[in-house]
Amino acid sequence: MDDRLPKEGREHAPQTFFRAQELYILDGFTYDEVATATGVSRSQIQRWATKHGWKSKRDEYLADMGCLRLEHVGLIQRLQKELKDKLDGQLLFAYRGLVRDFVGDQKAAKISDPPVLDVDRPALFLEDLNFIATYLKEKDPEGLKALAKNFDGLVARFKADHAQTA
Questions:
Q1: What are phi and psi of 118, to 5 degrees?
Q2: Residue 45: how many CB atoms within 10 A of its CB?
Q3: Nearest-angstrom CA–CA distance, 72 and 97
Q4: What number is the average pLDDT over the span 151-164?
Q5: β strands within the chain, DSSP E
Q6: pLDDT of 150
Q7: Distance between CA atoms of 100 and 97, rounded to whole angstroms?
Q8: Which spans in 86-117 are helix H?
Q9: Which residues touch 114 (CB under 8 Å, ≥6 apart)?
């Protein structure tokens, strides 16, 4: 952005100039739209745009944004592929955030769900149970004994709770 201010003595505050510049370059407003939004005359907006090279800056900004959007799409596609291979909360969070940034919150709600995954719940259950048992073995041997005593009940409860999803 051009951080040179309009010359002293002008009737417009520097913030007005910067806002007009942002609206034109970043938001893609026309001269008329910038004039309406800022309360500055169209002819003054045109003079600022000419003097400070807003058109070339907007073209450069749009080219940069086009490259970023392509990179964004590529990253979303890579995350989709990784999510197909494994369920990972951090990947899912990143995926949803990228989609929301890319298409906006309202559209993201419709399309941000990742591909349906085939989750092996029994394998996850056993993996988590193994983690708990290993932890208890090191930190609380009495707790491990309690887990072993109630193991059949835990497995039965898990099967009952997840029978419909298997």
A1: -90, 100
A2: 26
A3: 11
A4: 79
A5: none
A6: 85
A7: 5
A8: 89-103, 105-111
A9: 79, 80, 83, 84, 92, 95
Contact by Cβ (8 Å): 42, 31: yes
Residue with tokens 């940069």: 64
Residues 66-111 have pLDDT tens digits of 877 778 777 777 777 777 667 667 777 777 777 777 666 555 555 5
Q: What angle do CA 1, 102, 31 make, to 5 degrees?
A: 40
Contacts of 12 (CB under 8 A, 6+ apart): 6, 40, 44
What pTM does this model have? 0.45
pLDDT in tens, 111-142: 545 555 566 777 777 888 888 888 888 888 88
For the record, the structure tokens of 80 come out as 């989709």
Q: Which amino acid is at 95?
A: Y
